[in-house]
Amino acid sequence: MKITDEMIDYIGILARLKLQDEEKEVAKNEMEKIINYMDTLNQLDTSNMEAMSHAFPVKNVFREDVVMPSTDREIITSNAPNSKDGCFVVPRTFE
Predict the structure, then answer these.
(1) Whole-number mean pLDDT of the chain?
(2) DSSP string, 28-92
(3) Residue-level pLDDT at 56
(4) Can you tell me the mean pLDDT for 33-61?
(5) What is the CATH number of domain 5-42?
(6) Bridge-partner residues for 84, per DSSP?
(7) Which of 67, 68, 85, 63 shows the shortest CA–CA distance to 76?
(8) CB neighbourhood size of 31 (10 A)
(9) Domain spans of the chain?
(10) Is 14 helix (H, G, I), strand (E, B) or coil?
């Protein structure tokens, strides 16, 4: 696939980039290399390959959600400069 100057201009608009002429030329060459490489990959026979979503096996690393007792609110707020009803009192951020 041939990358045209119009394509580069359009991609620049989509990406909100202001590319100089030299940068456009570099981008065009790099995109052509990427497209050519993708064409090479498309020629590979993958009919005997199993579909996969990840390159490595993925396992759940989360712990079980177990309810446990928490620290007492009185202890947590004991060093607070200002607290009320077991909560921290902080300055307002908006009116």
Answers:
(1) 90
(2) HHHHHHHHHHHHHHHTS--TTSPP-S-SS-----PPP----PPPPHHHHTTT-SSEETTEE----
(3) 85
(4) 88
(5) 1.10.20
(6) 87
(7) 85
(8) 15
(9) 5-42
(10) helix
